[in-house]
Design goal:
By secondary structure, the protein is of the alpha+beta class. Helices cover about 55% and strands about 15% of the residues.
Length: about 750
């Protein structure tokens, strides 16, 4: 160092400081990037497990129960789905599914095998002894995908794992799918990034060294000039530097040194100001970069949250729709049940439709006043024997006689836990079955896992109890009528007055059935209205999210194909959410219209109308459906001089559109022909003829029933289907005006729907 010049020493000092600052910056960037790499892997784990859970055939998965099924078709099919997930995510090392066995242990079901060694699998039923604490804590309550916050170690290695619940069609949990990413693979990625950071640092060291020496020499130049001036002053060269006269040699030297010192000070001040200005500019740039990154992170989180909320709402709506359709079907089955045993089993099915309830029972009132357990499901035999009968005077019997629903949980179930400790019932509902002022029995539901029953589920249970009470009242009335008829055959002459009384009872029972039918329509209407509001929100937020994503985030992908492809896939998924929500809204409109028509609550705006313009508007209304089927052509044959009709134009157009929509839906290629002819001077015949696959003879009357759908061919199984109400609504409209609608069809050669008004 002693042999170096002042400029070189100062340059080495500046270079050393720059190298140290660069090393600290690269270390911070590495730590931040490592966290972002792990967060990215956890995000991809959530997406991959969610997609894998949706791709698994749950019915096949449920049929896998033991090691002997490893070579079976069900096991291979599910295993193939899991291996496709491994192909889509290169970091995946293990993909497998687990469930709880009868002892509550976590056991393997299907294992895709180790990456690179697919034959190394855990057999079905093998206990997963060292499952992670996160999986053990959330196994029974997991409702959405989740991933480990950090690494955990089991006997196979150290992993970062993502989980996703598997649900059956009825909403019950079928198990959990897990995807393991090896800690070694993540460490390898982090090591590669660290090596790159070190290489960058090594490449920058010579740059900083050269830049430091350059700046050091520039900073030392004024000092060298001062030293040169001092040397020249010492050698006697004063005239060219010193302007002070009439002073001694020391004064002249001091003046010259001060002048040079002032010059050096000015130069140093200029350099420091320039460096300060550069630091201010760089700090502003770094601040703007941090603000931009923070804004992008916040917007990304908001978009992810919005997408997650929309997905949850769609899933809730789909589950609600499935439960609603199942309830309607069971209510229809209950109304048509021919024997009491069938009716009791249907009541149990309706109770178990409520999410979270896993046990149900039906009590019937006997002649001695007691309540006897007539049917049950989901409870042990010992528990069933304990609650088999309740006599008058017992607290349970009194609850039913009061006629009010009772919901119990926690301490209120202590007497059950004492009687049958192993049952483990956590909450229960007791719903009296009341007809008039008489208690016919009770409908009960319970859960071994859920702590309480929510308010919407309580409303559903009470509606179910009302339907069940009506069915029991109907069955009792039918049984009483049968006994009465048998008795009247023997004592006709002497029991005429009694017959009249029983006839009045039958009339009252029939009136009650009409009331129950009205309650059913009210229930369907209320459920449809409740679904419309969240559906509107789903459509609106899906549109908003898609527009914001396309305008603000998709363009950030730039020329990177992978980011753009992923962004366009997200945008496409939002479009699917919007279209499916709109389609579900149209189905709800059909349900509302049907309920209004059956309840006589439709506001008919009748007036004199010309049929031809309305038929042409109906043809325009189905143009969108025709656009989706380029192989189908709509032909119009509307006669001149058709008589005017007195009806509601909107309802008339709705009936024609529904029939056209049905014809186009079941015609893959060919023509759909709309024809209108006069029938005399006051009537019109409208024909919709298609070249589709036709309708079987046994189905030609059933197609006009509510919710009926003809089974599509195998190649059309994946296509969206409606609610099966279009032809039903059309028939209601036509018959309201005293007309009729019928169908003529030949299998394989198309169908012709005929409307006469």
């Amino acid at each position: 160092m002693r042999g170096m010049g002042l400029g070189t020493r100062l340059g080495l000092l500046l270079a050393g400081l720059a190298v140290l600052a660069n090393a600290l910056l690269l270390a911070l960037l590495y730590l931040n990037s490592r966290d972002r790499i792990r967060e990215s892997v956890r995000s991809r784990l959530g997406e991959a497990t969610a997609l894998a859970a949706m791709a698994i055939d749950i019915e096949r998965h449920d049929r896998i129960t033991g090691p002997s099924q490893v070579s079976g078709e069900d096991y291979r099919a599910v295993q193939a789905s899991l291996r496709r997930v491994m192909d889509l995510m290169p970091e995946a090392f293990y993909v497998y599914t687990v469930r709880q066995d009868a002892q509550g242990r976590i056991v393997f079901v299907v294992d895709a095998g180790e990456r690179g060694n697919p034959d190394d699998v855990s057999l079905p039923g093998e206990v997963y002894d060292d499952a992670s604490p996160l999986l053990q804590a959330h196994f029974s309550t997991m409702s959405r995908p989740m991933s480990e916050d950090g690494f955990y170690t089991d006997k196979w290695g150290t992993w970062l794992t993502g989980y996703a619940p598997l649900f059956r069609a009825d909403g019950t949990r079928a198990g959990v799918l897990a995807l393991d990413v090896s800690a070694d693979s993540l460490h390898a990625v982090e090591s590669r990034y660290l090596r790159r950071s070190v290489l960058v640092f090594a490449a920058l060291v010579p740059v900083f060294l050269a830049l430091g020496i350059f700046l050091g020499r520039r900073l030392a130049a004024p000092l060298n000039l001062l030293r040169e001036g001092a040397v020249r002053l010492a050698s006697g060269e004063f005239s060219h530097r010193v302007a002070v006269r009439d002073k001694g040699e020391i004064g002249e030297l001091a003046d010259a040194f001060n002048t040079l010192a002032g010059q050096v000070e000015s130069m140093l001040d200029g350099i420091l100001e320039e460096l300060a200005e550069r630091q201010v500019v760089e700090e502003r740039l770094r601040h703007k970069e941090r603000v931009l990154e923070d804004l992008i992170r916040r917007r990304t989180r908001q978009l992810e949250n919005s997408l997650a909320e929309a997905t949850e709402r769609v899933e809730e709506l789909e589950k609600g729709q499935r439960r609603y359709v199942a309830q309607c079907s069971l209510a229809h089955s209950l109304a048509e049940a021919q024997d009491q045993g069938q009716a009791l089993q249907t009541m149990l099915d309706m109770v178990l439709l409520v999410e979270g309830l896993d046990s149900a029972a039906v009590y019937l009132a006997r002649e001695d006043g007691s309540l006897e357990l007539a049917a049950h499901r989901g409870i042990t035999q010992a528990f069933a024997q304990t609650i088999a009968r309740f006599q008058p005077g017992e607290r349970q019997h009194a609850m039913v006689q009061e006629g009010k629903p009772v919901y119990v949980e926690g301490p209120a179930l202590a007497w059950l836990h004492q009687a049958v400790p192993e049952e483990g019932l956590r909450c229960a509902a007791v719903l009296p079955l009341i007809s008039g002022a008489k208690a016919l029995g009770a409908l009960c539901g319970g859960s071994h896992a859920m702590g309480d029953i929510s308010s919407p589920d309580r409303d559903t249970l009470e509606s179910t109890a009302a339907l069940a009470a009506g069915a029991l009242a109907r069955d009792l009335a039918r049984l009483g009528l049968e006994d009465l008829n048998a008795h009247l055959e023997r004592l006709v002459a002497s029991r005429t007055a009694a017959l009249a009384g029983k006839a009045r009872e039958l009339t009252a029972a029939n009136h009650r059935l009409h009331e129950l039918d009205a309650m059913k329509n009210a229930f369907l209407s209320a459920m449809s209205h409740e679904l419309k509001t969240p559906l509107t929100s789903v459509v609106g937020f899906a549109k908003l999210a898609g527009r914001e994503f396309e305008r603000r985030f998709l363009r950030l992908a730039g020329d990177e194909p992978a980011l753009r492809e992923r962004g366009e896939r997200i945008l496409g998924n939002l479009g699917v959410v919007e279209r499916e929500a709109v389609r579900l809204g149209l189905m709800m409109d059909d349900v509302l219209d049907l309920c209004s028509m059956e309840g006589g609550q439709v506001d008919w705006r009748d007036k004199e109308v010309r049929p031809v313009p309305l038929l042409m508007q109906a043809a325009v209304a189905v143009s969108g459906l025709l656009a989706a089927k380029p192989g189908v052509v709509l032909e119009l044959d509307l006669a001149e001089g058709l008589p005017d009709l007195y009806l509601d134009p909107d309802r008339f157009q709705r009936a024609v559109v529904n029939v056209l929509d049905n014809a186009i839906k079941f015609t893959e290629a060919g023509t759909v022909r709309l024809t209108a002819r006069a029938m005399g001077s006051e009537a019109v015949q409208i024909r919709v003829q298609d070249t589709g696959r036709g309708i079987a003879p046994e189905l030609r009357e059933r197609i006009f029933e509510s919710f009926f759908q003809d089974a599509p061919p195998a190649e059309d199984q994946a296509k969206p289907r409606g609610a099966g109400l279009g032809l039903t609504i059309a028939r209601h409209i036509v018959e309201h005006y005293g007309g009729r609608i019928r169908v003529e069809s030949e299998s394989g050669r198309g169908s012709t729907f005929i409307i006469e008004l």
